[in-house]
Amino acid sequence: MAGNQSGFGPPNPTAIMALRCKSCSAPLSAGQSDDIVRCDFCGASQKLVDARAFFDQVLLQVNAWVRQAIPFGIDAIATGVIDPVARHTIFMTNIRPRLSTEYGEYRFNCFNLLSHPLAVLPYMVEKGVPFSNAPRDVFLFQAKVQQVSPLAVDEECKGLVSEIDALSVVYGYLLNNTALMTDLRPERYHFMTQNFDAAAGALKSVGKFSILRDRLNGLGKLSKGLDEVTSLKVEESLITFDESRNLLLTAKAAATQNMDMALMSQAIDKEISLLNSSYSFAEALKCTPGGDYAATIQPLRNLMNILGTYREQSPPQWQSRFSDVGHHEQILKVVADIQKAKSGIGTINIYPIGGTVLFPFWAIDIPYTFQTGSLWKTQGVEVTEALLVAATFPTDLDAFYRNEPRLILTDVFHARERSGFFNETFKRLSGRETSISGGGPIREIMNRAQPLTTGGLKVVPPLSSSNDAVVIVQEYVTKVRQTDRTVNNQLRLSAPRAIGLIFIPGTPDGYSPNVTPWLGSLAPRSVGSLGTLASIAL
User: Fold this and answer.
1) Cα–chain-centroid distance for residue 454?
2) Which helix (H) or strand (E) is 379 found in, with range?
3) Does residue 508 contact residue 451 with C-beta atoms inside 8 Å?
4) Which of 66, 117, 457, 478 is the most exposed place for a label (fewest CB within 10 A)?
């Protein structure tokens, strides 16, 4: 048996005779002078005397299980005096069936857990990872495995025990991290790193799990980098993230070629996306003008809180989009680009006019066809219209929650040419209409935008992705068809596509952003809540 009955010294991931944490049952590290010990894996603090009492309870449960599992009179500890053939018979007849039944459940649940991404972004929580077992139960099972391991004689049985032992340890530590992912404690990334490292260490001698070990090591580096960046050790975090990337990419490449590990592939893809987001978060801090990280961390924290809120509370039709890790990756990439533009080492696409705050807008093309004319003059006309969508539209309650997209974009169908009822009717009947929308100068804004530094202006980051913008334009077209009979009768097909992000200067005044006022009625009536946007402006 591995371990240390006194409980002193560093915890061993596969030890059963070390002191155990009352909260998660992971091994505890305690010194002779400690009255209070803290678990290195879940963070729970406990009195040393209580930890010893809990350890005694664990031993009682393990010994009771062993007595039920093996024939009366056989001592699993003293199996060295038993004939190897008899030990093999006892293992195959009494032990293996019991272990296999319990291990089958834990193995299934462990790989189910491994099919989910096991990382979480700063200042956010992750509640969607399955928590099928308590870590205490899994570590208790592992202790049972260790206690009967001397009964495994041949290589096959030893290999089975080694696999069960290692994967049980992995599962226990991953369950600890599943709980930590729902916890916003500042030190959670430190504990997550400890769990990932201990889990990876348990797999050293099990070759069939080498791919999983690479993944766990990569996740350990990712958690370490997140611990560093939230502690404002920004340069160190970027190096650690690069180390994590190499390990996760190695695990991903190997997993796609291995049938047993292929179920992890999608989860690793998402973890790489989370890594990219984390890297952008660190880059945004690194590019803070003057190196004042503390000045930038608060708006970034506010941004992550807002994204977390949308993830949990967005309308049903938006839920999957705002829960997607790729959504956060795109937004945080723009945040890093903004910070580079602020520090003068990069640019963002800006429409060059006066203002005090740069607001983000998605530039959208809407190619559509409509029918005009009557009888023999009926014909289809193809048009490509330009439209701007406030990239901060989720902060507008009416647009996001009450399906009123017209408020946060250039309402080009409402602004179509209106020259009087008889003139419009004549054009429509004669087939002389060239458009049923009126984008006006929107195309000019898109064409004149150019890569620039921010020039000291405050910059509001986007809260939506390019795909989100396309979806809200589709909702806008549907709304127009429901409320405008003329457009509904003539419009045949539309296919919005995002062109890119443009930052347009505005001069906020009270509740008005004062952005693109020269567009008149075509100007978006809202960019969202100015109070919320002020809290995330960089």
Assistant:
1) 29
2) strand 379-390
3) no
4) 478
Residue 151: CB partners within 8 Å, gap ≥ 6?
70, 76, 79, 87, 88, 90, 91, 95
CA-to-CA separations, 191 to 173, 184, 315, in angstroms, rounded: 10, 12, 34
C-alpha 181/C-alpha 128 separation (Å) is 10
Could you read off the pLDDT of 312-369 as tens digits, one per residue?
999 999 999 999 999 999 999 999 999 999 999 999 999 999 999 999 999 999 888 8
The first and second tokens of residue 157, run together, are: 């049985």
Rounded to a whole number of angstroms, the CA Rg of the chain reads: 31
Nearest to 167 by CA among 130, 192, 138: 138
SS3 60: helix
* C-alpha–C-alpha distance, residues 332 and 463, integer Å: 9
C-alpha 39/C-alpha 28 separation (Å) is 6
Distance CA 45, CA 24 (A): 11
Parallel, antiparallel or unpaired: strands 36-38 and 450-452: unpaired
Give the C-alpha separation, 144 to 67, whole Å: 11
Q: How many helices (H) does the chain have, and how many strands (E)?
A: 18, 9
462: which DSSP letter? P
> How far apart (Å, rounded) are the C-alpha atoms in residues 373 and 370?
10
Decide: 308 and 331 in contact? Cβ < 8 Å: no
Does the pTM exceed 0.85? Answer: yes
Per the structure block, which two tokens stand in for 475?
């909702």
- Paired tokens of 370: 């409509």
CA 214 to each of CA 176, 201, 218, 227, 270: distance values in angstroms, whole numbers, following the listed order = 19, 11, 6, 20, 16
The Cα 310–Cα 316 span in angstroms is: 11
Residue type for position 191: F
Q: Give the phi and the psi of residue 16 in degrees, each rounded to 5.
A: -115, -15
Strand partners, 451: 349
In a 3-state reduction of DSSP, which class is residue 126? coil
Tokens of 262: 């292929």
What span, in angstroms and rounded, lies between the C-alpha atoms of 41 and 463?
35
* 388-406 per-position pLDDT tens digit: 999 999 999 999 999 899 9
For strands 491-494 and 458-459, give the pairing. unpaired
Three-class SS state of 9:
strand
Residue type, 345: I
